[in-house]
Fold this sequence. Notes:
alpha+beta, binds magnesium ion
Amino acid sequence: xxxxxxxxxTALLGIVRGSRVMSxxxxxxxxxxxxxxxxxxxxxxxxxxxxGYKVCVLDPGLDSPAGAVADxxxxxxxxxxxxxxxxxxxCRAATTEFENVPAAALxxxxxxxxxxxxxxxxxxxxxxxxxxxxxxxxxLAVAAHAEIERDADLETLDPKLFPAILKSARLGYDGKxxxxxxxxxxxxxxxxxxxxxxxxxxKKLALRQEVxxxxxxxxxxxxxxxxxxxxxxxxxILATSTIPARxxxxxxxxxxxxxxxxxxxxxxVGVLCVEFFxxxxxxxxxxxxxxxxxxxxxxxxxxxxxxxxxQQARVLANLPLxxxxxxxxxxxxxxxxxxxxxxxxxxSTAREPDWASVLSIPGAKLHxxxxxxxxxGRKMGHVTCVASDGAEARVRADQVARILGIVPxx
Length: 410
Ligand code: ATP
Ligand code: MG
């Protein structure tokens, strides 16, 4: 006789070590809700579905990467309370795949169903000013900076901040909403051009490396952490991640500790990523917090026991966290829309990259996000090259980069 599920689809989770509260497990077969339809949502859907959940996506687009694989899709704005109420009615719990979702939408949903991460955590990560204040309050270091909210803030700038980067406090991603500036006059002009919205002026630093840590924390306070990724950005956009990062054990330990301090300080529930700058003297600064799975953690799909997206589903369903061990060395290459065009800057002739050759490289795992239109700078997919050691993963990634026309890493 087939076992029947409890009518309300819940069962009690055994107490996890260190946990304070028992949260009801949301059993496979239940519906989970997702705000946002991008590639992070698409990979979350796939992971949740392989655990047996159904996913309903709320996203305004009719043709989104996550909407295309979700079990259902509500096409509506994130501020549409009727749509949010419908999502909450259908789902036992909801999460988000991008940090610019209005915190008010998460608050509204939380009145009707379980939501993680909580609006308060997302609100901090959405605002560079609030984020830097929070990180400093945690006892961690950030780049020298000034908050710019009014004309008077420009009068008192420390000249030692220059050369600098003016960053809009809100709604920046992939280097958007940022402007390099060398003087107060340039800062004033850039700030005016950005609509005089709140900004931070950050000293431009010489970086030895950039690294990131993806951490997971359950409602009961259990944590898990993935190995450090070493990230190379080009034009403000992540180009490659190498895992594990080529850093000494002390830097890795300090980065892991800082990520856990931040997760605990936020009383965070879900998956988050902390990006760090490594300075030439080995100093570590927190760059920013992403309250969601991160591009530098995509390798976990192919090279970890549990992926970051599986962890997101586990946390949402109040299941125990999965094993974060890395099973293979990995180098991830982002596939940007530029690869669909030839190298002349204004060319608009689109061509399909040579996927068959990419897939002829041993250990090359291709992930395309199903976006209908390639645009320059748009994240269209990624390739994770796995191998039994880091040197071989790098060789394979270089082969893939050559095939795709990506400039190889230094
Ligand atoms: P993301 O796509 O990670 O959300 P973002 O648009 O929020 O990016 P940042 O992470 O602030 O922007 O910056 C993007 C990249 O620009 C960094 O990863 C780094 O390579 C470079 N960068 C940013 N700030 C500085 C700095 N103060 N000094 C040197 N390089 C910097
Ligand atoms: Mg960043």
